[in-house]
UniProtKB/TrEMBL annotation, chains A, B:
CC annotations in GO: cytosol
Cofactor: Mg(2+)
Official protein name in the record: Molybdopterin molybdenumtransferase
Species of origin: Leptospira perdikensis
GO biological process: Mo-molybdopterin cofactor biosynthetic process
Superkingdom per UniProt: Bacteria
Keyword Magnesium part of the UniProt annotation: yes
MoaB/Mog domain boundaries: 178-315
Pathway note: Cofactor biosynthesis; molybdopterin biosynthesis
EC code: 2.10.1.1
InterPro entries, alphabetized: MoaB/Mog-like_dom_sf, MoaB/Mog_dom, MoeA-like, MoeA_C_domain_IV, MoeA_C_domain_IV_sf, MoeA_linker/N, MoeA_linker/N_sf
Amino acid sequence: MISYTEALEKILSEVRHYPSELISLDQSFGRVLCEEIKSDRDYPPFHRSAMDGFAISSQNYTPNQVYPYHRELPAGMSMDLEKDEKAIRIMTGAPVPEGLDVVIKIEDANLMEVNGQKQVSFSTKEIKPWLNISKRGEDLKTGDLVLPKGIQIGTSVASLLASLGKDKVSVVKAPKVHIISTGNEVVPIHSSPLPFQIRDSNSYTIKSILSKYKIQPESVTHVPDLESEITKQIQIGLEADILILSGGVSMGNLDLIPSILQKLGVELIFHKTAIKPGKPIWFGKRKNTIVFGMPGNPFSVQTCSRIFLEPFLRESYGQNQLPSYKLPYHGTKQRKGGLTEFFPVQLETKDNTYLKPISFNGSGDVRAGVFSDGLGIFPSDLSQIQKGDTIDFLPW
Amino acid sequence: MISYTEALEKILSEVRHYPSELISLDQSFGRVLCEEIKSDRDYPPFHRSAMDGFAISSQNYTPNQVYPYHRELPAGMSMDLEKDEKAIRIMTGAPVPEGLDVVIKIEDANLMEVNGQKQVSFSTKEIKPWLNISKRGEDLKTGDLVLPKGIQIGTSVASLLASLGKDKVSVVKAPKVHIISTGNEVVPIHSSPLPFQIRDSNSYTIKSILSKYKIQPESVTHVPDLESEITKQIQIGLEADILILSGGVSMGNLDLIPSILQKLGVELIFHKTAIKPGKPIWFGKRKNTIVFGMPGNPFSVQTCSRIFLEPFLRESYGQNQLPSYKLPYHGTKQRKGGLTEFFPVQLETKDNTYLKPISFNGSGDVRAGVFSDGLGIFPSDLSQIQKGDTIDFLPW
């Protein structure tokens, strides 16, 4: 049985690259950029006043020198100096006129009016060129590479794209995904299950994960454990870019999925990996279609989605992987068996930030992941985790 | 000037509670639950086999005892024991028949066939009642409170709601939001700005933040610094639940917003707070409408949105606040002035997880927050941060 890291490597080596589409910036939040973005001009595009105050020249400045002035320059306008003009009242965001190189803030100015002539002086002892001015091009120069492909459009990126005038952006097009849940015991969520039946929660788990990647699945189906029905649905499912199955991959003799997949020419890449929960996971491909066969327990599906499906999607989108953290764990664990174990934990902050265990009854517990912030990892080569030990943490 | 924490308290004491709406679970990902959810039945709803194997009774068990068997019980069906029936082949997820209380996994079973009679024995030395069985009600009992109001519908919650049969859920209805950006220097993002103009990035910053809370603003407008125009747009904006302005709140004499707001009967709650960036922020209310007047610089808007607007929305939604973390900072900072400072940082993990500084040129820098994972906080009462010191961190 292959290890967690081997399984992840095999999955990541099967990534597919999906085409791009051009959409409006308004619709792009959370999507992943599919083009390199270069600066369309210098930023700031002009020597910009960072304060409300007076623009003057640093040359020959002496404290308490009196400057006559008669003009005000707001943001959104520009001015050329007139003959003998040595000071201009200037607003934040306005372009500092050529010939001036300092802005003294209004709080440091002494305003006077003598014979109808406005005047100003400053007690500031010493001034250096470019005081309170954001120089043209100091943030970015025309043509600078600003954003690489593969970056997700969060708030700061959306703000930058808007500044750069990108009202349309090229983003990764969502792949076509089919979801099939299996199992005679599984019924649709709006029905009243018989005592020995359960509702189909796994489709919702998977749809929720996909929604993080702005994927709306093309079809979501449930099939009973009937070879002909499963075969028919999988044949349809194999027309998608990604087919995600849940249930039917463990040891029971009604677990038909692996044999049907192989009959339909889906190449097995691995079946089973040394993890808990999620051990029976099946992974394979047929041409461009990737097939994830997830186990049927709710927490197994949540875990497999987080540790395998999400990394696959991110790599396919050209994104960095979600970071894993190393934080102190305020609980203990003893090794039972040789599997890498994933368990729900909560983040808590007192003097520092640490992880706190959450109690649950195994992978079939319908509320296992609720109230957790992510998964702690108990690696297979550790015999125990002691209170305060640093462990890996994968946020949801 | 009030402090950061005083400003935040004043904002949080003005929260409004928005009505609920009933939507399908499919559409609810990322929304916030507005009803308490109770368990509709016991979970598991039956004594559920956790393994593929054989169901037997723990009473009078001895190792290597031979059990005849002739029936198989898959998940999705139930069986009553026949007279003298002592063992049933059982699948994961199937209900353990009454009278049996142990499942021995298939890997530990010795299968035989004697004169056409199927038999099984187990070498397992000792078995305890309920081995490999998830007992009815061990996760949840009928009527248990499972989810409180105010929880966000992430993957684990969506999975649980589906298990419980909640195909429709009551969620907080998004408030009506109007966005107005101001400033003569600001032009729409699809236009080619003159050298002394900049594009309206702040509307996108705010729209992106709102999208995290599933809010689609009702209107997004830009107005030049013209009293009549601003007045007209603010009057319309005051019909919303939340009016968010950007620009026009600092010291410049074209910064008309505060005076217009007060003329229109908006009660000032505070103007200016001891933070950097974002110091000029204006906050007030008129009847049920809350007004945020944000400064004009891109990074100031990102910061004010994260530290003030998001907490306001979360509190209004009945959600917990986003956690703040305390992590070691791998940089240094010296105090200049008495403001609480927010600065972009990156998370990095080697032996442990720490924060790394990102260089930027102040709040006007269009790429300040890009590539950052959140904001570090340099509190006003600290004189310096030394490498390795633990600081507060607010993830984006």
